[in-house]
Specification:
The protein has 4 domains: about 5-150, no CATH class; about 170-290, 3-Layer(aba) Sandwich (Dna Topoisomerase Vi A Subunit, Chain: A, domain 2), CATH 3.40.1360.10; about 335-560, P-loop containing nucleotide triphosphate hydrolases (Rossmann fold); about 565-650, Arc Repressor Mutant, subunit A. By secondary structure, the protein is of the alpha/beta class. Strands 19-18-20-21-17-22-23-24-25 form a 9-stranded mixed beta sheet, with helices on one face. A 6-stranded mixed beta sheet has the order 11-13-12-14-15-16. The chain has 17 helices and 27 strands. Helix 11 runs parallel beside helix 12. The two termini are about 65 Å apart.
Length: about 650
Amino acid sequence: MDYQSIFESDFGIQKIKYTGNQGMGLCPFHDDRNPSLSWQLDTGLWTCFSGCGSGNTYQFAERLKLPNPHQYIESSTVGSKNYRNGEYKLINTFKSEDTDVFQVDKIERLEQLKERYGKNHFRADSMILGKDKFTGKDDDGKAVFFYEYGIKYHKCSPFWHPDSLDKGLQIFMADLIDENQDTLYICEGEKDAYNFPSWLNAVCFSAGACSIPKDLSSIYYDNLKTIVIPYDKDKAGNGGMKKLAGHIKFERPGLIVRMLKWDDGLPDGFDITDALDKGMDFFNGVLENTEEYTLPVKTKTKGFDIMNMKDFVEKYKDEDTTPIIKHLVGEKNITLISGDVDVGKTWVSTHMGLSIATGTPFFGTPISKKKRVVMFQFELNNAEVSERMKKLHKSYGWINNFQIKIIDEDEEIFVDSWQRIEDTCINESITDSVIIVDNLYTSTDKDVSVNADLQVVIRHARRIINKTGNAMILVGHHNKKKSENLPILEMDLIQGGRTLTANVNYILQLGKSTYSPDIKRGKITKTRGGYYEMKDIPFMIHFDHDTAMFRKGVIILNETAHTVEYEKRWEIEIAKEFSGYQGDKEFDKSRFWQFLSTEQGWERTESNNTKVSRLLKTLVEWGMFKHPDLKKPYNSYQVDLEAVASITKERK
């Protein structure tokens, strides 16, 4: 079914615009000034975005109170035209074994109707091979106009006769064009084109002033030089003339296109037929009063400023491009810290901020300049942030130029906070500074896994940077991977994908290590400033739970070894070996040290002493060690041989 012509012609939708397979126009069910009606060209399903409802073409016809709305049900379709590559191609939609014969029968019936309707209008002996073959009256006396594959009613709904094979947007009387003439008149309706003097070329379109057929090639003949558009004297006619004139000039720039200028004293709705009724002198005077249409000249808009090489270098020679932390944080740039859940992203971003605020090297890299740092926290509450600051002040002191956003009691996450971040930077004069946004996911109501939504957030972040000159540290997340092992750190893990990673300047990725809860994996996967020896090289990050301090460790030669499944963790291996050494006898920390001293890397140092205490606590929590007397849990342990055996059995 040709839903395009149904909405354009039968339903008379105005201000139509197409985008792909979707049409938009003014909804007839309310006072619509901005097109709010949408329909699908392949299904005819429609929706009014202003609340008038939705449905199919049958329901639409019923709402319009058109006679015989059943004709708009797919199964009753006779035929339609398919517009592809600017050509009309008849489509058979009949369910018959011999559709070609069936189609011919329909065409013959249509021609018989045209002949009968023509005789209803003219005597049989007066039928001529000129304009009279394009008009007639149906058996009820209603005026009709004849198209090649259709019969169209004059100002009557439905517009097309049910037996029409084509209800699409067409050109009326195109086959009467005299190609020896250099001027063509395009009228608004069939009546005006039909009444136009026969010695002049005149056509019209089947859907009125605001609709233009997709293919006008049949009227662009070789000798054509001028097209005159004498549409009606009303708002629709004036707008339709400009629309058609612009369309023609765009397609055929060499043609002269003229629009009719009606006398202001004439009433609204005055048309060519009315002009003819006043006599040929009046009509000729109307046709002489035209103005040529020219495509509007685009006014100069704000484009990009350009500059030659030497002037460009001279203007920006004093700009400071020294990174704040080499290979990690740059002026007016975005640094992304992304990692697993509970890997310590907030800790690392906080340390990075405190290092910048105090000038303390970060991961052994010097800070080129101290700056004001403001942390916008959207995950932890005020009390949690306060506890962390208490720990960190022992190492950094109380820092005046490290500031923290206060979280309102009623403040919610997953609401758009970026405008408030921008407003805070403006109101508090946070410029040429570093702002930390922790984190991307909870700072917005957008779905950061959807490219279009994420682009909105990134654009806002860039706008803040451009307005304030700040650098930004943004905390992000890794996508969850369904695997027994932890994933290798790479940019493909980052939530937001290419849309995010392509629009930040530095990326530090963090991952857990199955070696120890005190060890994290780090990897710089994007950086600026030329070659960097640590780019894409994994390294250990040591975390001290007591002081909450991080320390960059040695590079990781075999990253896979840090990602093996949980059961192969070194803590479990030590517990299993110790169970064979100790059995189920009670032991204390000293006895455990005696066993560990035989293992490589367990020299009796202060650092290892703390590590042993934590290891004992971990193995108790995991259920492999226990306290034999719960009333005296300190420095008294026992291997749970049953638990160790179950772990061993599970591995097998």
